[in-house]
Design goal:
alpha/beta, Rossmann fold, 12 strands, disordered N terminus
């Protein structure tokens, strides 16, 4: 384990890597943070082939980059490739922030803290004693479960197309709070105050097969995917009775701010960046 906030980069070159990645707003976000903090940096979006992550990352490191953000589908590959891991990356078994030291690749996961800050600070949602449903059991879900459970929900249910995977993930986090796993088709008719889509279905304009009756009065439907228009999941949730909907843009900015802190030791203001992105001014 290591305190990644002490890391000072050797260079001012950074990137986000994924497949696809051209749509990423991370370059605009990090440039906005740098402007706030009086820093000059280079930040690019770099696409890697699905079977070329390790070699691609080594090429990026050799090219003088100080660190990268990692998006789908490489978060678990980044976890495996890291020489050292933060505690939250160990817990999530997924990495979205890599720092390149002289002799080591250091992995962290800022997704969970980014989601928590967006929910509690930007959306003023009360997680404590709420019933929370997380849809999906992949790397995105793994990265957010621990922070969600530390907020003290009354219960947290993981629902996945493959029920066994949801149950395994629930067991892995059982020590952190009241959590259980079910197959999507076996979701009990329980209404939740917060329903989070942690699948990638919205990227394809699709929605997981979900029953009616998931939303308690005034419930929030939250999609980790962000888009210029409401995602397919958020449109479905609105029609299914959700009181409020939100996409993952706020989480994206908040997790980026945590990465920025790791790399630069400065914590930028996120709300003006979120507002500028919503207004298409970034």
């Amino acid at each position: 384990m290591s305190d990644l906030s002490d890391f000072q980069p050797r260079a001012s070159r950074f990137a986000v890597v994924g497949h696809p990645v051209a749509h990423s707003k991370s370059p605009q976000i990090h440039q906005a943070f740098a402007s706030q903090c009086g820093l000059t940096l280079e930040y690019q979006a770099l696409a890697l082939e699905p079977d070329g992550f390790e070699q691609g990352l080594r090429n990026i490191r050799a090219g003088g980059f100080a660190g990268v953000n990692v998006t789908v589908p490489f978060k678990q590959a980044a976890w495996r490739l890291s020489d050292r891991l933060s505690e939250r990356a160990c817990t999530a078994q997924a990495v979205n922030t890599l720092s390149f030291e002289d002799e080591a690749i250091v992995g962290d996961n800022t997704d969970g803290v980014g989601l928590l800050r967006d929910l509690e600070q930007n959306l003023t949602v009360t997680l404590a004693r709420s019933r929370v449903l997380v849809i999906g059991a992949g790397g995105a879900a793994q990265g957010i479960l621990q922070p969600l459970l530390t907020a003290g929900p009354a219960e947290l249910v993981i629902a996945n197309r493959t029920g066994v995977r949801a149950q395994e993930l629930a067991m892995a986090f059982a020590g952190a709070g009241d959590t259980s796993g079910v197959a999507l088709e076996d979701l009990a008719q329980t209404a939740f105050e917060i329903v989070i889509n942690a699948t990638s279905t919205s990227l394809a304009g699709e929605v997981p097969v979900l029953p009616q009756g998931l939303f308690a009065p005034g419930a929030l439907a939250y999609d980790l995917v962000y888009a210029n228009t409401p995602t397919a999941f958020l449109r479905w949730a609105h029609d299914a009775g959700a009181g409020h909907t939100a996409d993952g843009l706020g989480m994206l900015v908040e997790q980026a701010a945590e990465s920025f802190w790791i790399w630069h030791g400065q914590r930028p203001h996120t709300r003006p960046v979120i507002a500028a992105l919503r207004g298409a001014k970034l």
